[in-house]
Amino acid sequence: MTDINFYQLAARPLAAVLPRLLDKALAAGFRCVVRSNDADLLARLDAAIWTYDPASFLPHSVDGPFAFDQPILLTSEPADANAADLIAVVDGVLPGEPTHYKRVLYLFDGGDEAALDRARGHWRALKDRDGVTPVYWRESDDQRWEKAG
Question: Does the residue 117 lie in any domain?
């Protein structure tokens, strides 16, 4: 069974939310991949992961020859070079087969109508599909996650 968690961002940007979610995922024993074809986005997320908490260290890399060794891999490549069991979707493009992963984090800007429509379309397509458990989280103004579906 694959857990697919939709995160509708409202109070904080992606670069502030993703590192915290990845930190929790690592603590839970997941190997993570963040995939995007946008090199600038991956560079911004890389910087955010390095600096999100001065008291914390999130081991990660952007592609490279040691990709397999990375518990968190940021990549534009379609293959899972680090044997990830969690994928963070940051650009609205779900993996071809989401059930390949134990968990999918689908993060999107709730203030962007196109991103919201795309997320709703994915939700509708997945909610009755066998092998997946979708959960919809909406960020409140006070930066808390409220279960919305």
Answer: no
Give the domain extent around 38. 2-106+122-147
DSSP H or E run through 46:
helix 39-51
DSSP E strands, the chain? 2-9, 32-35, 61-62, 72-75, 86-89, 103-109, 132-139, 145-147
In tens, the pLDDT along 63-103 reads 888 889 999 999 998 878 899 999 999 999 988 888 999 99
Looking up residue 6, the CATH number of its domain turns out to be 3.40.50.10110
Residue with tokens 């001065």: 54
Strand partners, 88: 34, 105
Look at residue 22 and give its three-state secondary structure.
helix
Residues 14, 21: Cα–Cα separation, whole Å: 10
Residue carrying structure tokens 């955010």? 48
Residue with tokens 């904080």: 12
Is 69 part of any domain? yes
Alpha-carbon span 11 to 40, nearest angstrom: 22
Q: What is the reported pLDDT for 30?
A: 98
CA dist 2 and 8 (Å) reads 19
